[in-house]
Each structure stands twice: as structure tokens, then as C-alpha cells.
Design brief:
Layout lengths: L12 H40 L4 E4 L2 E4 L8 H30 L6 H26 L5 H8 L4 H20 L1 H6 L4 H4 L4 H24 L5 H9 L1 H13 L16 H18 L3 E3 L1
Antiparallel strand pairs: 1-2, 1-3
Length: about 280
């Protein structure tokens, strides 16, 4: 009587948990690095424009605060200071996604996942960011009002809600690229799709946002916290799309799952760098 074949190492419960834990660590590292890049560009852009226009302010862990009364702002200065960031982030997100889609989607390695997270964070900073800015009446919220509102606030309200709907739609479209960004055949199997969503989507979002928040305490601003939440407008439909996608478009390119400790360390060093650089507010003019 022939005995049944022994299960492979990857099919054991312990090996499966270890593989998905590695997926969580790598995904969180990519999430953090991508967020820090996008956030740096989003905050450096208005500081750069303000310095050229001799508008004084303070840059700290809680964000940027301009020391200028309402009467000192002109239409052009408002649009330039608060409008450059979204323009640069749109270019960054589009460039990251095109680089991922045209050159890396069928290759192995974490750079493609990092690029996809950059594209997702940039999208959230522009689309979800307007919704967050609408709540706090700050940042990019000023631009549509000064361009179209004639003193009213309806343009930012309308655009903020419209951008939220667009972000939901883009989340569904991002499901296939997200699957293409995975290398693990085990994670891509449809029976493991729920675990991929937990460890590859929800885990990096929750753990990454928690680490970002802890690194900013007690100076975490409401606006930045709202940016963590609006990321859900992308990730929730992305998770639904992944769960409904029966095919695994990248399953032919498996790669052993390992923790990219260098990437994890770089992400944590980035959090420390933010703390050291802006722990003491930096004045500019």
C-alpha cells in the first residue's frame, strides 16, 4: 500500500503564517517609505513657494503654519503656495505607476510594490487629501475656493466629494496591479486571497498608520490623521477587487518570500529622521 505524500514545507500552517508575516513586514516597510516620500514632497512644496514669496511660517511635526494674517494673502500667493503640492504629487503618482506598469509589473522583487504604494499614497494625498482638507479647512481646500468660489466654499466641497468617488473607483481598478505587485505564489492563490488582503493590504495600512502616528505624538495634527483615514477610500475597494479577482496574473513569477530587513530598517530610520528634523519647529521666511 502506497503512503500519501508528505505535505511540502510551504503547505504547513506554521510555514504559511511565517510567509504572511513576512508579507506584512515587507508591505508595511513599503507603505511607510512611500508615505514619507509623498508627505515630504507635499510639505516641502508649499514651504519652497512661501520662502520665495517671503511668506513667514513654521514647519513642525504637526504640519506647516504660516504666520500671515488673512489680509496679507493674495489670490496668486494662495494658489501658488497650496497648489504646487497637488500638481507635483499628481506627477509623482503618475510617474510611479507608469514605471511600475511599463517596466516592473512582470519582474520580481519589492521595487514594484514600493512604486505601487507611492502611486497609491500620491493619489490619496491629492484626491483624499482634498476631502481631509475640506474637513479642517486648510491646505488644498483654499485653491478651488480662490479660483472658482468668488469668496464661497462650494467649489472645494463639490470637488472634495467628487474626488472621494473617483478615489473609490480607482481603488477597484488598482486590484489587478496590486496582485501583479506580489511575488509569492502562496499569497496569490485564490483560497489565500483573504489572508493576502489582511496581511498585504489592511495590515500595512493599520500598522503603518499607527507607526506614523506614534512617531508624531504629541504633535500629530488632525489633518494628517484624516489622511491616514482617507487611504481607506482606495484600500477598501482594492481589497474587494482582490477578493473578486479569480485569476492570479503574476502567479507565473513566484519568488521565495523573505523579509527585506534593509527596507524595514530604512522605513524606521525615516520615521526617526522626521522626528529629529522637525521635533523642534523650523521657522522659515
Amino acid at each position: 500500500m502506497q503512503s500519501a505524500p508528505a505535505p511540502s514545507a510551504d503547505s504547513t500552517p506554521a510555514a504559511g503564517r511565517a510567509k504572511f508575516t513576512m508579507l506584512l513586514l515587507n508591505g508595511t516597510a513599503c507603505y511607510l517609505l512611500a508615505y514619507q516620500l509623498v508627505h515630504l514632497l507635499a510639505e516641502a512644496a508649499p514651504v519652497f513657494v512661501a520662502r520665495r514669496a517671503n511668506i513667514p511660517g513654521i514647519w513642525s511635526l504637526s504640519g506647516i503654519r504660516f504666520i500671515l494674517g488673512d489680509g496679507g494673502w493674495q489670490r496668486d500667493s494662495v494658489v501658488n503656495v497650496y497648489g504646487l503640492g497637488p500638481v507635483l504629487l499628481t506627477a509623482l503618482g503618475a510617474g510611479a505607476f507608469l514605471l511600475f506598469w511599463l517596466y516592473l509589473r512582470h519582474r520580481r522583487g519589492l521595487p514594484k510594490l514600493l512604486l505601487l504604494w507611492v502611486a497609491l499614497h500620491a493619489t490619496n494625498a491629492v484626491l483624499g487629501g482634498l476631502l481631509a482638507d475640506m474637513v479642517t479647512q486648510s491646505g488644498s481646500w483654499y485653491v478651488p475656493n480662490w479660483l472658482l468660489g468668488g469668496g464661497g466654499t462650494w467649489p472645494s466641497t463639490v470637488l472634495g466629494l467628487l474626488f472621494a468617488l473617483v478615489q473609490l473607483g480607482l481603488g477597484f481598478l488598482a486590484a489587478v496591479p496590486f496582485l501583479l505587485a506580489q511575488d509569492s505564489r502562496t499569497a496569490l492563490q485564490f483560497e489565500n486571497r483573504a489572508r493576502l488582503i489582511v496581511y498585504g493590504v489592511a495590515g500595512p495600512w493599520v500598522l503603518g498608520s499607527l507607526l506614523l502616528a506614534l512617531s508624531k505624538l504629541p504633535h500629530l495634527g488632525v489633518n494628517e490623521a484624516l489622511h491616514y483615514a482617507t487611504m481607506g477610500l482606495l484600500l477598501l475597494p482594492l481589497a474587494i477587487g482582490c477578493n473578486q479577482e479569480f485569476s492570479s496574473p503574476n502567479e507565473a513569477l513566484p519568488q521565495p518570500t523573505r523579509v527585506a530587513w534593509g527596507l524595514v530598517g530604512l522605513a524606521l530610520l525615516g520615521l526617526l529622521a522626521w522626528r529629529l528634523a522637525l521635533g523642534t519647529p523650523v521657522a522659515f521666511r
